[in-house]
């Protein structure tokens, strides 16, 4: 099986052309490929397939390192776009892709970055999903006797966002891991730790569902900015500083899509026998 190792701000991917190769991977095989000791190593594995809708160019599927299939991946979407152009699977400047979270529109920009229309965020608890009856700006959760408050939103995948004073020292591994599997989130959750630096800049670290902390999470960056704007703390265009680099996130408010702009890089080509 041929693959390309790619990354978006250090959030790394094994990307596989499943149009020109017959690929059927079990969850166990995906865990093996993603393993950093025995396999290739990656946060997510991406499969590029033929579209399912008449107006789309491709379909892409996303698997976390734990083997679970999920519906949304912002950094993966930019890598998908770079992959289909580099492999001459398309020469379009605007690409439409089917995902399990709906269609995404991707655009190659003159500055070399890729902008993704990440869709309209969903706020109702049932749509996240989150086990609260009523929607709120912040929800409480008790962990080890302490009450923590978080914002929550779906970007096609579930996100909880906790505000911190110092993102470098945020309890990402401990609180992130506990909240990822907390009973409040029936489909588990991605957990972001956001430090507001000013109204146009935040620092963010994300403990990802099915992958633990990554160097960057595109959908997590969108979720954090949406939560910050909803609370009146951020402008409509925000630079998100992640451990792996920066993304620009733009959101005009309720009912509008979120736009994410950032880089996507190919690292090497490889073959693996499975
Ligand atoms: N790294 C991704 C998100 C990947 C999926 C996520 N871990 C989930 O389970 O929803 C991104 O850049 O958005």
Care to describe what's here?
This protein is an alpha+beta fold and 274 residues long. It has helices at residues 27-34, 74-86, 172-180, 218-230, and strands at 2-8, 11-17, 44-49, 58-64, 69-70, 94-99, 102-108, 114-117, 139-143, 146-154, 158-163, 190-198, 201-208, 212-214, 237-242, 245-251, 258-262, 265-271. It has an 18-stranded mixed sheet that branches. A hairpin with a 2-residue loop joins strand 15 (237-242) and strand 16. The longest helix has 13 residues, at 74-86. It is found in: Cytoplasm. Catalyzes the stereoinversion of LL-2,6-diaminopimelate (L,L-DAP) to meso-diaminopimelate (meso-DAP), a precursor of L-lysine and an essential component of the bacterial peptidoglycan. The record marks 159, 208 as: Could be important to modulate the pK values of the two catalytic cysteine residues. GO terms for molecular function: diaminopimelate epimerase activity. The active site is at 73, 73 (proton donor), 217 (proton acceptor).
Order of helices and strands: EEHEEEHEEEEEEHEEEHEEEE
What are the distinct ligands in this entry? the ligand N[C@@H](CCC[C@H](N)C(=O)O)C(=O)O
Give the overall form: globular
Alpha-carbon distance between the two ends: 8 Å
Q: Characterize the largest beta sheet: strand count, sense, and whether it forms a barrel.
A: 18 strands, mixed
Quick take:
The protein has 274 residues and is α+β, with helices and mostly antiparallel strands. It has helices at residues 27-34, 74-86, 172-180, 218-230; strands at residues 2-8, 11-17, 44-49, 58-64, 69-70, 94-99, 102-108, 114-117, 139-143, 146-154, 158-163, 190-198, 201-208, 212-214, 237-242, 245-251, 258-262, 265-271.
